[in-house]
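Quick log. Single chain, no ligands specified.
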Amino acid sequence: MSPVLSGVLQLTALIAALALVYRPLGDYMARVYSSEKHLRVEKLLYRTIGADPDAQMRWPAYLRGVLAFSAVGVLFLYLLQRIQGVLPDSLSLGFTAISPDQAFNTAASFVANTNWQSYSGEQAMGHAVQTLGLAVQNFVSAAVGIAVAVALVRGFARSRTGELGNFWADLVRGTVRILIPISVIGALVLVACGAIQNFAGIHEIGQLTGGTQQVGGGAVASQEVIKELGTNGGGYFNANSAHPFENPNAFSNLFEIFLILVIPFALTRTFGKLVGNVRQGYAILAAMGVIWLGFTALMMWTEYAGHGAALQEAGGAWEGKEQRFGIGASAIFATTTTLTSTGAVDSFHSSFTGLGGGITLLSMMLGEIAPGGVGSGLYGMLVMAIIAVFIAGLMVGRTPEYLGKKIGTREIKLAACYILITPTLVLGFTALSMALSSPPESILNVKGNSVDGSGAHGFSEVLYAFTSGANNNGSAFAGLNANTPWYNTTIGLAMLLGRFLPMVFVLALAGSLAEQKPVPETAGTLRTEKPLFAGLLVGAILIITGLTYFPALALGPMAEGLS
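-> predicted structure:
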């Protein structure tokens, strides 16, 4: 079988699997967030944290819940890393405490659902930090994202009230009823594939070429499944999903891609059910699907084509690709992980062709909305839908409406702030890092025309790092030594601001929409469930992103790809 055909068949199988579970999972999640009943274990959790799950919250109260819970998570995870050195060896594996700047970066990263790692997991983190700290945040940070998305959907569905539900109930339900059950099943699948699941210590084993190597154990399968399902991305090992302990074979690789995509895509069905019009969900799904499929096809083409005689003779750009998976599977994984806020990798993004690396960058720059992270992809796409409706209203001279709500001055200002905050963080921190004297010294793998970090590839590495951090992705070109006080601090700030500032605007927008009374449809109402609107939405996303980031992309991956 040819490598190209193998990649196409894997992509077809993946689409079929997603289509099979789309409706039942989407309907189930809609029932979870609309049910008035509480499970016994949920009632116990509410009593433990002192929350009243039936109390309705307006958007400021909902936001305070999000920020307070996340702040406690950052503090707890930071302290857990700092005391690792005094924990028993069975919990710490003998590792010392994490340095203050790296502990801050890691705490910010996992609470922000980014999972950027400036450390090697098998050489720095013991069982306590991995399971009690990082794995727990994989669950709850994902649940926070879904909760905020559901709050925005309620803003569209409700009228003449500012109430958006209860954050604590949404958080607990997302964790207990959705993430944990799927993770249990997924972990069993990964164990059956060969992923490890234990609490073993570090073993020294012999190598075929002589010498020894230290190999650590851990609860890898259980953390691997939630890192993908929750679009987190942080790996137990430095090689992430290219490591055979995390991702043993071609089937597990395809299964992990499925886990990354299943909830973000299915949430569009949940959206349609909650607003009472499933065709609206199909329109959002269509926009997400067109972008994801288009970027995946483009990535496969550029990596298979491979400019140059050596790459063509090899059958494609094999550098940095896992031989177990091949170019096609690596291309699908790369676009999937960067179009979502996952950041897991099964190949070396820095070794992709210049255009292939540019696709991973552009995928994140879209705002990771196709289909995006769990929750964050849906609310990001809905904000872009509001922008698209506004543009359509300007073209026909009509007050824009979406799902029976008028898009007025307040709503469009909040939407504009949402789409501007992330580019400001990305371009601002990148400019500072290239302008100052010391940060460019962290560029270790320069493919440009200079050894001081000023080459096109060196610039791409820095741009990629802050794009990944501010968009809560977590993947890296990996030619950048990000474990320095400058990058640990600035990327940590980019992750926190890039996660929670947009949530402020999303929840404020939800509250504004919920207070409105519904606007009846007329002959002039834009039909947002039609293919025409889905096309308009895709066009708006690509144009806005292109206008925002084109100069930066021209200096980095485009210059490298054309050189």
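The chain is about 65% helix and 0% strand.
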